[in-house]
């Protein structure tokens, strides 16, 4: 009981913006609105919102590794793709009976974590740092994309799952929850929306606790001054590796949910554009804060989709401009800037007002 | 017994012999100052002791254990601690959080908060605890880092120019702080240019010149040594 209280206390702390009753009241309001949303909307919009939620996990992974840890990684899309393909291969081979899709979800994340463990071990213990970390992770991402894109021939299959080259895999079953009255198949509408929302809230709160723990302290210490962190007795490379693996699992979660949502995955989900976009979401929101990352990612995603509908050719250009403007005007992120400004407002006087 | 022992330590950077067969023995409980002109190899010697550089040859013994092959963090666990030349605080974090990161491996919960408060009081930084460490004055950053280094309860504290950029008054206070730590049982090895500080605290002085141990003795012996004056003090006070 005591340990639970101390865990909950870590929901607030120096590493996360937002504290006190006002913040948590707002959190409850937003959560209630998100829960009520499907009742006031149509299946397509709800499924589309779930699609936005799916991407938040990869953004959080970048927030963790880059924003908190200080290591810029382009490799998150690689783990996204690895887990996505792994889910496809597993479920096409073994089907969706007996809740296997949920096991496949976990297995796919474990596979992404193992790859991250291997890659991260050589990177961090080989002392690859700074811009070189970005280059190596980008190379791995693009290599995977190239490799998957050339698997069109019938010889490229794992069990009954054809890899299908550039066109990607499709036809894997959606997430299916076994239920006494018949399995609940989570197609891309209300059911999946609630499941993804639930996972998102849990992951967000868990990450708040982790980042405000002594582990989180060490992670930001390494970002600020790795030499000093090491000379306080912390095995810097081990902490970097653990962060990298957690990040890969989050990116992998995105990949699985994405694959299950649309029942397809293609190599271009690991391409240059796919690697760059999460960076923009996270940078625009505020990479060094979880809440800013979630809000920023959802806002930019919604804006991006609106742009692609009205003028598809320009959407990516606008994203680039947005990134440049963020770097110039609010280098710590626009959402984070606004939240810090709100945190400085004399809220006690304004509570009765607007 | 010697707490730290350097045996025939050598380090080359390309053709530059920065540490040349250095033998140095540090007694438990002493304050030992390392002086020498720029480029004498003082900071390199620190990096060798801390494991940031690997020596070309030679051994480093700490409390009788050969630590030459240990990684830096493992040496810290054995009881070494350091304050760097350029203040190595976590600039973007608050003063309190800086101390928390230093103290959290030894303390938890309420006890951790009490230890942080005690440390803030010891350093005279209570009023600045919520400030970002990067906004502190230079002297305050030095103290904060000394506070972080000592919160590990080290057996040997390495100080690389602890008074650089400090006023004479701050230098004197730092000297008192070092003496207080020493009286609590901490052995100190300090690189220092400020002779007033060396006079105040040093029980023994080693002069390093061109990577070699040039002279060793009490501060009075070192000052009386004409060869030392020629390479170092003469230049410094010219």
Please name the defining characteristics of this protein.
heterodimer, A: 354 residues, two-stranded antiparallel ribbon, disordered C terminus, B: 238 residues, alpha/beta, Rossmann fold, 2 domains, six-stranded mixed sheet, four-stranded antiparallel sheet, 39% helix
Query: Runs of chain A with pLDDT <50, length 5+?
Result: 348-354
Identify the overall geometry of chain B: globular
Query: Radius of gyration of chain A over alpha carbons?
Result: 21 Å
Radius of gyration of chain B: 18 Å
Largest sheet data of chain B: 6 strands, mixed
Oligomer: heterodimer
The CATH superfamily of the largest domain in chain B is identified as: P-loop containing nucleotide triphosphate hydrolases
Count of helix runs of chain B: 9
Order of helices and strands of chain A, N to C? HHHHHHEEEEEHHHHEHHHH
CATH secondary-structure class of the largest domain in chain B: Alpha Beta
Determine the CATH topology of the largest domain in chain B.
Rossmann fold
- What is the SS-derived class of chain A? mainly alpha
Helical fraction of chain B equals 25-40%
Find the structural class of chain B using helix and strand composition. alpha/beta
Tell me the number of strands of chain A. Answer: 6
How many domains make up the 3D coordinates of chain A? 1
Biggest sheet strand line-up of chain B: 6-7-8-3-9-10
Q: Low-confidence parts of chain B lasting 5 or more residues at pLDDT below 50?
A: none
């Amino acid at each position: 009981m005591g340990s639970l209280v101390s865990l909950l206390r870590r929901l607030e702390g120096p590493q996360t913006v937002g504290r006190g009753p006002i913040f948590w009241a707002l959190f409850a309001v937003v959560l209630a609105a998100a829960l009520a949303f499907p009742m006031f909307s149509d299946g397509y919009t709800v499924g589309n919102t779930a699609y936005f939620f799916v991407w938040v996990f990869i953004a959080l992974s970048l927030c963790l590794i880059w924003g908190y840890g200080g290591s810029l990684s382009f490799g998150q899309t690689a783990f996204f793709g690895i887990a996505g393909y792994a889910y496809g291969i597993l479920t096409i081979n073994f089907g969706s009976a007996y809740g296997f899709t949920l096991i496949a979800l976990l297995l796919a994340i474990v596979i992404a974590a193992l790859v991250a463990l291997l890659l991260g071990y050589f990177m961090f213990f080989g002392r690859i740092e700074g811009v070189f970390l970005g280059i190596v992770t980008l190379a791995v991402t693009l290599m995977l994309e190239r490799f998957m894109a050339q698997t069109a021939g019938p010889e490229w299959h794992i069990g009954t799952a054809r890899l299908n080259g550039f066109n990607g895999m499709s036809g894997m079953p959606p997430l299916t929850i076994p239920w006494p009255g018949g399995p609940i198949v989570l197609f891309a509408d209300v059911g999946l929306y609630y499941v993804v929302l639930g996972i998102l809230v849990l992951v967000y709160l868990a990450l708040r606790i982790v980042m405000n723990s002594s582990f989180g302290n060490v992670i930001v210490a390494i970002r600020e001054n790795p030499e000093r962190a090491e000379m306080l007795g912390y095995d810097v490379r081990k902490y970097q590796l653990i962060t990298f693996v957690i990040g890969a699992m989050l990116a992998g979660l995105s990949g699985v949910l994405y694959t299950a949502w649309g029942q397809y995955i293609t190599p271009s989900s690991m391409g240059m554009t796919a690697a760059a976009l999460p960076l923009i979401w996270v940078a625009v929101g505020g990479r060094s804060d979880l809440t800013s990352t979630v809000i920023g990612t959802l806002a930019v995603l919604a804006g991006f989709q609106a742009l692609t509908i009205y003028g598809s050719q320009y959407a990516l250009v606008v994203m680039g401009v947005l990134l440049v403007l963020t770097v110039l005007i609010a280098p710590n992120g626009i959402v984070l800037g606004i939240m810090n400004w709100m945190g400085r407002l004399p809220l006690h006087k304004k509570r009765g007002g607007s | 017994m010697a707490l730290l022992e350097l045996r025939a330590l050598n380090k080359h950077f390309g053709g530059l012999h920065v540490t040349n067969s250095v033998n140095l023995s540090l007694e438990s409980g002493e304050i030992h100052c390392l002086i020498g002109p720029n480029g004498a190899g003082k900071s390199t010697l620190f990096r060798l002791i801390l494991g940031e550089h690997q020596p070309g040859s030679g051994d480093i013994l700490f409390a009788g254990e050969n630590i030459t092959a240990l990684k830096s963090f493992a040496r810290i666990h054995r009881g070494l601690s350091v304050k760097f030349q350029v203040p190595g605080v976590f600039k973007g974090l608050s003063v309190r959080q800086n101390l928390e990161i230093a103290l959290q491996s030894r303390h938890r919960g309420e006890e951790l908060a009490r230890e942080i408060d005690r440390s803030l009081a010891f350093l005279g930084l209570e009023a600045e605890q919520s400030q970002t460490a990067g906004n502190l004055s230079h002297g305050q950053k030095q103290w904060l880092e000394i506070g972080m280094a000592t919160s590990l309860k080290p057996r040997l504290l390495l100080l690389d120019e602890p008074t650089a950029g400090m006023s004479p008054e701050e230098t004197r206070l730092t000297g008192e702080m070092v003496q207080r730590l020493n009286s609590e049982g901490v052995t100190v090895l300090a690189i220092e240019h400020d002779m007033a500080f060396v006079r105040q605290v040093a029980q023994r002085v080693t002069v390093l010149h061109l990577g070699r141990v040039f002279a060793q003795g009490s501060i009075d012996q070192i000052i009386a040594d004409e060869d030392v004056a020629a390479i170092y003090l003469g230049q410094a006070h010219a």
